[in-house]
Amino acid sequence: MDRKNELLRKTFGWTSFREGQEELVDAVLSGRDVFGVMPTGGGKSLCYQLPALLLPGVTLVVSPLISLMKDQVMALRSLGVPAAYINSSQSSEEARRVYAGMRAGEYKLLYIAPERLTLEGFTEAARSLTVPLIAVDEAHCISQWGQDFRPSYLKIPDFISRLDRRPTLAAFTATATPEVRGDVERLLGLRSPLHVVTGFDRPNLRFDVLKPHKKYDALLGLLRTRRDRTGIVYCSTRREVERVCEALRLDGYAATRYHAGLEDEERRRNQEDFLYDRSTVMVATNAFGMGIDKSNVSFVIHYNMPKSLEAYYQEAGRAGRDGSPADCVLLYSPGDIYTARMLIESSAENSELTPEERARVTERDYERLERMTEYCHTTGCYRGYILDYFGQAHGERCGNCGNCDGSFTELDITREAQMVLSCVLRVHDKLGYYVGQGLIGRVLRGGRDKRIFALDLDGLSTYGIMRGTAAGRLRDIFDALLEAGYLRKDGDHGTILPTPAAREVLFHGKAVAMRVKSGPEAVRERTSSRSGRTARVPEPEYTEPGDADNRLLEALKLLRLQIAREEGVPLYVVFFNATLTEMVRRKPRNMGEFLEVPGVGTVKAGRYGELFMDEIKKCL
Ligand code: ADP
Ligand code: ZN
After folding, report:
1. What is the CATH number of domain 3-197?
2. Angle 428-434-439 from CA coordinates, rounded to 5°
3. How much distance in Å is there from the Cα of 386 to the middle of ligand 2?
4. pTM value?
5. Which of 5, 283, 438, 538 is deepest in the core (most CB within 10 A)?
């Protein structure tokens, strides 16, 4: 076996390279610049970590999120790889120690924040070292077109030019758009790099979009069936984060929160609580997650629709990084569009772009939002929609998304639609202005509140004609009419107006249909809201192995938890979930077999092998 494959198996514990990894590793080893575009979770880090072990000297890794370096370094050390980081969160004592270790050539990998590159002291220290390779993680941060522009990334080329010998450059990103890719290549000064763009598909992720009336109830329903799992709930605004997190805590969930408005200290603490599995639900804005390598995130729920599919796929992609089945559920409501528009407008105001640039960026943002909204409404395969967006070919149905495995019922709601639309018109005729959905609904259902009587709306012919329709169903009908474009909402006042198309329904009998999801998620949501807050709902979507295997898996997880506590590391630093599952499947009885388990390298086998095999023996 050559050194490369030996390291892959023995140190990293993987049996084979993933798509794109080997080409990138080979190019870097031959001294050629590379540009790797892989989806989140695709395995970018191995592409520079493995070469770093084979090259002389120390590889520098530029990474934007200082709070996570510690974690990455810890994971490397657990594999027996000498690595360190330098950033502003360290005490000067610690930093001195790392500088000393760096000069003594103790490390193969050194993680640094981009700001560090502008410090004279660091440049001086770096000049005395052999630096064969600089890896730039999240390379899209260098581009203004990217979602996370970081001006300090622009300093990377300066830094490189001050080294005696230009190292090989390896840039990595998960961003798909050609503008950003072009920017990265130009601004970093990559020299005829090898481009590797791997498939964007993540087959272990199950995508779904739900359109619940009450998002919070739907969220509880989803969480209830995932109590023993860890996941992220993304919200669009800080306020929503606080609200949802607070409510979840009151409902007994170990939830924590993250957004840019919190004190550094709290952010750091909450993030660690989540990384170390002390909190199982992270409620956060998109400020959370860049560069996070928490492999056992088993669901990502979007409480609001994000601004673009790039953002959505990046955030959702934080689920299932260990390859286990994971869920990505988006809870959509039409109001999300207004929030997204607001965010687009305010980010345009804040930026330091020229007016023309700003207009172009805003226009592009609106196009992206349009596609994102379309995704929420597609009746085709969700995965297919995403892959189309990123320009990748795919089969017609993936079989693992809400539209492929859920079933729909089409309801004819023409009559109900006519009642609603005519009520909207009658109320307008009577009052001379349009009103909100709530009031129309109450008129239709024969409500007896003061406002109705004060406005004389109980005298209308449409008053009470939908008495027998449940409030929830009526809201479905409103949603369907809004979506189909027969009604529209006035953004400023939330009033409901008919569109010209409504005439077709009212006066020409045009049929209106409403799709109702009757897949597993829909069933679960209904069951859970009926059975009250503390009810446990059985999980339909995961096929678990037999009982004995389940018990063994639980036993191994417990053992992992004990080890992680003793060593003060996150669970996945000991072993990934997928690795434990494989252990259960293979039941290794000796070191040889233990080393065959994907995810097990020599260091971990030596450290934990006996313990885990003892546990397996007990359960045989
Ligand atoms: P990203 O591309 O998002 O930076 P990572 O490098 O963090 O992804 O890798 C994602 C996950 O895949 C990690 O848990 C990593 O350990 C695992 N992984 C990476 N390479 C391989 C491989 N060749 N075989 C199996 N798992 C791998
Ligand atoms: Zn599908």
Report:
1. 3.40.50.300
2. 95
3. 10
4. 0.63
5. 283
